[in-house]
Design a protein that fits this description.
The structure holds two protein chains of two kinds. Chain A has 14 helices and three strands. Chain A is mainly α. The radius of gyration of chain A is 21 Å and the shape is globular. Chain B is of the alpha+beta class. Chain B folds into two domains: 185 residues, Penicillin-binding protein 2a (Domain 2) (Alpha-Beta Complex); 305 residues, Beta-lactamase. Helices cover 37% and strands 20% of the residues of chain B. Chain B is built from 21 helices and 19 strands. In chain B, the strands form six sheets. In chain B, strands 2, 3, 4, 5 and 10 form a five-stranded mixed β-sheet that branches. In chain B, strands 12-11-19-18-17 form a five-stranded antiparallel β-sheet, with helices on both faces. Chain B is elongated. The mean pLDDT of chain B is 87. The chains are: A mainly alpha, B alpha+beta. Chains A and B meet through α8, α11, α12 and α13 of A and α1, α2, β1, β8 and β9 of B.
Chain lengths: 360, 575
């Protein structure tokens, strides 16, 4: 019985997640052992909670969870609305809810809620019949939480909805001409959207295009984080021996810029290892997707994959100046409870897809 | 179709990862040496570029606040060798320990320069530049220091700036405030800090092993702050300061056409320059602890009993509610008794003014007349018209929106003392004694409203400033009643019985009102306010002499010279 339970788990995926979590804890320690936060201990706790959750989900199964998908979606929208009234403000954006000692970030829930709702909605409709209507419906479903997140404003999270939704539409079988129209639409709307951005958001984008605009502000971070990663060279400076990141040249080095610490201390070997682990994780998800015949399961796994992959690409890209600096964590590695647990829930759903592959 | 889409997605994801891996290879392996070099030798230096602060001008473009060049000694501790400390300490006449302390004290960014000593003499700066080969890592940075060329002249209006503290630094925008930034603490410098302050810039430079710059990696120039033009007339202000020096007094003069203040002087004053220069701490301390309180702007920063000036308000209230006409007469025998058993209140003129009407009562400032008027009024009625005339109401003045003045009524007294209002207090209130408190600028606004026949006036200091609209345009007081008051104010100066006749000038008719506010056991406060000329007024003024004695003497003496000064600088232009 127990053996059967273990056999139903997709071990490569679990190994990848655990390896990334261990790397995360090691480098959270390296990034912060001179400070007094004891972040690595907290992260161990988050990791344990996250992994247990992830392993528990397959025994519930994704179908029951999907059946409450709309409910979860509605709940996360209510939380987003609540943020406007009782949310606490940090750095000029209203993103957090105080729940006892915890700071909840409803936009994290909203990502998962939207994912589940879209899986239900698209999965139960045939792409070959009345596609226009279905796509419009899905866009409305997306627009409600998305606009609320944009309004907060949490542009980083809002942007991450886009690859997730695109991948789901794409796998579902949206017509090419819809994608092309959407792309053209974005090009046309871009100037309008620019006007709606807050000053600090405009500044970030301008500085990304030309770091010289703000050598002391985020341009400084961009240059310093690139120096940190680059100075690691092939072999790195050795664990705990980074100078750039240890000396606080790079801010937020245990959260958003943790990849800098890895790059500096382990060099190209280390960054390549991390990328390979992610590739291994993604390949595991692809394999699971390939084996399922349930369109909903495929959409679900595809959405999770898109979320994880876009986080990785943007976060790593930003440390070497390929992407603008946004406050996005590196999945499963960066310090932070809500992001780690949300990722584990998402991956738990994927594991459950694997477990139930044999139903048909 | 579905299958091929799946593989397409897979391909996109892995190609993107491959692209990241190749980029990392480029940054870490191919350019790794370059970045390692930058990181090991820490060859990047960050230099914030401070924005120069906007200047402040008077109405004709004379500088009231500007910036002069300063030479600051800065150092990059990374480039400093141990021999530098004793040499530098000796050059700067500092203890070596202090140099070391400054070297390690708070720096804004890693590899930003540390400030060792600000504002050194130019000759010393040249000497340090010459000896630079012995002083690796040390540099002279040219900066700006706030300078107030006229010192005390308009110090209360302009205010001063001071270095920000740690808590402010944490809270404020880094694009605008650096660790050594100054911030306005008083006056225009405080309330227009945002306008005067520019946006900081900065540059990242690359230096060689000896700390010499070899190239600029990136640069953003600073944006200087905007200049401000005040309505003040520097000459006039200076001469008025001269008039009241050695007294505790304030004088404010308003141009009735533009409603801009031509002068706003308070004495004793302080030299704002002492707050800028760190070396002046002894003088700063003496100013801050001076019993004469030079830091207080006596025209807005403190409230005083208005004394007989307030009779203008009482008279207007009684006229408006119809309790008296200008011809209503009361008999003054020098004494007044409220009811049968009341205490005797005296007129300042003990022989009594006899039977007089309202004009004569204002002209001679008869207390008994206004005691009689007060018996017909409630404190609420007087308070209502006081507020209507702007007393106890917020100001629009740029450097003080507060109204520290106080207009009492029975509700206020109940709340404050938990006691009912006694009629005797109405008597006191009617002549501006008791609980009534006003600032000289409130009185100036009152006089200006009278002079402009009821148009609501809000004095201001900055030209072309965009104001929020006044809540009202006119006061709810009939023009005929304001006319009565104007005529009476004319008699105050022009009649041979008038209390303000010492202020009479021979080139035009002046209308005014004196006030002498009793402050036992000290000498009374002397007040005088008015407008000039009587027909088609150009200016209104208020003069206040703290414990200066009679308004008709201490006040009138200043008023006469003030009007002569004004004529000297403005009348030819008008004619």
């Amino acid at each position: 019985m127990f053996r059967k339970l273990l056999k139903d788990l997709h071990w490569p995926l679990i190994v990848a997640v655990m390896s990334l979590a261990v790397i995360g804890i090691l480098f959270i320690y390296s990034a912060s052992f001179r400070d007094s936060g004891q972040y690595e201990i907290k992260q161990v706790l988050w990791a344990v909670i996250g992994l247990v959750t992830m392993l528990a989900i397959p025994y519930v199964g994704y179908r029951p969870l999907l059946s409450v998908g709309y409910l979860f979606y509605g709940f996360s929208v209510i939380l987003l609305i609540l943020v406007f009234f009782v949310g606490s403000k940090h750095f000029g954006a209203q993103r957090w809810l105080n729940v006892g000692p915890l700071l909840l970030q409803p936009s994290e829930f909203a990502k998962l809620g939207t994912l589940l709702a879209l899986v239900n909605y698209l999965g139960s409709r045939n792409p070959l019949q009345g596609q226009t209507k279905t796509v419009l419906g899905a866009l409305v479903l997306l627009a409600v939480p998305w606009l609320l997140v944009v309004k907060q404003p949490d542009l980083g999270t809002a942007l991450l909805f886009i690859p997730m939704v695109l991948v789901m539409f794409f796998l579902w079988g949206i017509r090419w001409r819809f994608l092309i129209t959407a792309f053209a639409g974005v090009l046309v709307m871009a100037p309008l959207a620019w006007e709606m951005l807050k000053d600090y958001q405009k500044k970030r984008i301008l500085v990304f295009l030309n770091p010289n605009l703000d050598p002391l502000g985020s341009g400084y971070t961009a240059i310093q984080s690139k120096i940190a990663v680059g100075s690691g060279g092939l072999m790195g400076k050795g664990y705990l021996a980074g100078t750039q990141t240890q000396l606080h040249f790079v801010p937020e080095h245990h959260t958003d810029f943790i990849f800098c610490v890895i790059g500096e201390e382990l060099g190209f070997i280390g960054t390549l290892l991390v990328l390979c682990l992610y590739a291994y994780l993604f390949q595991a998800i692809f394999l699971i997707m390939e084996r399922t015949t349930d369109i909903k399961a495929k959409l679900l796994a595809g959405g999770v994959l898109a979320l994880l992959a876009s986080h990785v690409l943007i976060n790593v890209g930003m440390t070497i100046g390929l992407m603008p600096i946004t406050g996005l964590p590196l999945p499963l590695i960066s310090y932070g409870g809500s992001s780690f647990i949300m990722n584990c829930i998402a991956l738990g759903l994927v594991l459950s897809v694997y477990k139930e592959r044999s139903i048909f | 179709m579905r299958i091929s889409r799946f593989y397409l997605l897979q391909a996109v994801v892995f190609l993107a990862l491959l692209f990241l891996a190749l980029s990392l290879f480029h940054v870490q392996v191919l350019k790794g040496h370059y970045y390692r070099d930058l990181s090991i030798r820490n060859h990047i230096r960050l230099i914030p570029i401070e924005a120069s602060r906007g200047r402040v001008f008077d109405r004709s473009g004379r500088l009231l606040a500007t910036n002069r060049v300063s030479y600051d000694v800065v150092a990059f501790p990374e480039d400093v060798t141990p021999e530098v400390y004793p040499t530098l300490a000796k050059l700067l006449d500092m203890k070596e320990k202090e140099v070391r302390y400054r070297m390690s004290a708070g720096r804004e960014y890693p590899f930003a320069p540390a400030l060792i000593k600000p504002d050194i003499p130019k000759s010393l700066a040249i000497l340090i530049e010459e000896r630079k080969p012995e002083l690796p890592g040390v540099a002279i940075r040219i900066g700006g220091v706030r300078h107030y060329p006229y010192g005390e002249t308009a110090s209360h209006v302009i205010g001063y700036i001071q270095a920000i503290n740690g808590e402010e630094y944490e809270r404020l925008d880094r694009d605008r405030f650096g660790i050594h930034s100054m911030i306005g603490r008083m006056g225009i410098e405080k309330y227009f800090d945002d306008t005067l302050r520019g946006w900081r810039g900065g540059e990242q430079i690359e230096v060689d092993a000896r700390g010499r710059m070899v190239g600029v990696l990136s640069r953003r120039p600073a944006e200087p702050g905007s200049d401000l033009h005040l309505t003040l007339d520097l000459d006039f202000q200076q001469k008025i300061m001269e008039l009241i020096k050695d007294q505790r007094a304030s004088v404010a003069v308003i141009d009735l056409e533009t409603e801009g203040l031509l002068a706003m002087a308070s004495s004793p004053a302080y030299d704002p320059n002492i707050f800028v220069s760190p070396s002046a701490s002894a003088r700063r301390l003496s100013v801050l602890t001076d019993v004469q309180s030079p830091m207080i702007d006596r025209s807005i920063g403190a409230a005083y009993p208005p004394g007989s000036i307030f009779k203008l308000v009482t008279a207007l209230a009684a006229l408006e509610v119809g309790k008296i006409t200008p011809q209503t007469r009361f008999f003054c025998n020098g004494r007044f008794k409220l009811g049968k058993s009341g205490r005797v209140a005296r007129c300042w003129f003990e022989e009594g003014h006899g039977s007089i009407n309202l004009y004569q009562a204002i002209e001679r400032s008869c207390n008994v007349y206004f005691y009689n008027v007060a018996t017909k009024l409630t404190p609420e009625e007087i308070a209502k018209y006081a507020h209507e005339l702007g007393l106890g109401e917020p100001m629009r003045l740029e450097i003080s929106k507060l109204a520290p003045g106080l207009i009492p009524d029975s509700a206020w007294k109940r709340a404050r003392f938990k006691q009912p209002w006694y009629q005797g207090e109405t008597i006191n209130m009617a002549i501006g004694q008791g609980y009534v408190l006003v600032t000289p600028l409130e009185i100036l606004r009152l006089t200006s409203i009278i002079a402009k026949n009821g148009k609501f006036v809000d004095p201001h200091l900055v030209q072309n400033n965009e104001y929020e609209e006044s809540s009202r345009d006119r006061v709810a007081i009939r023009e005929e009643n304001l006319d009565v008051i104007k005529k009476a104010m004319l008699q105050v100066v022009e009649s041979d019985y008038g209390t303000g006749q010492l202020a009479r000038v021979d080139f035009g008719k002046l209308a005014a009102k004196t006030g002498t506010a009793q402050t036992p056991p000290l000498k009374a406060h002397g007040w005088m306010t008015g407008f000039f000329p009587y027909k088609d007024p150009k200016i209104a003024f208020v003069v206040f002499v703290e414990h200066g004695g009679s308004g008709g003497i201490a006040g009138a003496r200043i008023v006469k010279q003030l009007i002569e000064l004004w004529k000297g600088s403005y009348v030819p232009k008008i004619a």
